[in-house]
Amino acid sequence: xxxxxxxxxxxxxxxxxxxxxxxxxxxMQAERARHATVKMNIAxxxxxxxxxxxxxxxxxxxxxxxxxxxxxxxxxxxIVNCGAKVDPDSVTVETPTIVVEAxxxxxxxxxxxxxxxxxxxxxxxxxxxxxxxKKQRAILHTRVSANEWVTRVFGATETVRFDPxxxxxxxxxxxxxx
Length: 178
Fold this sequence. Notes:
The protein has 178 residues and is of the alpha+beta class. The protein has a single domain, classed as tt1808, chain A (Alpha-Beta Complex), CATH 3.90.1570. The protein has helices at 3-10, 33-52, 108-120, 171-175, and strands spanning 18-21, 24-27, 58-61, 66-69, 72-74, 78-81, 96-103, 127-132, 137-145, 148-154, 159-162, 167-170. The protein has a 6-stranded mixed beta sheet with strand order 3-6-7-8-9-10, with helices on both faces. A two-stranded antiparallel ribbon has the order 1-2. Strands 4-5 form a two-stranded antiparallel sheet.
């Protein structure tokens, strides 16, 4: 399938939640409460950061799609869009600045390998934040040039700074109640 075909096929959502990898729909796994709580918390923390900085950016929880190429697209756990405002009827975010993946035991290897490498190919993405929900830590990959990224590991009580767009997220807020 192409991304366009996949998005049309997936639009009615009767199939469950899927991503598209190399032209093949891949069913997304069921989530544990810890995972869902951290996802909700990180989206809320990003939204709070955008509001505090008074940025015209949009924050999306899971459900929106980032297109990698013609036959691959993913549904991150949270997205910050600092480009053109996303059309209210769109299911894709064309200019994601930050993407967040909260890892689970069943997807950890793919998220930290192939999916991360694919996110690196999207020119608009400045930051990829990988959340390890059980270990309560985060791995931030920040673009410093077209093909160079810097990686930093954060503990559960540290603050992550995203420049651009100029927001901060306290990880303690993200791991609360998880």
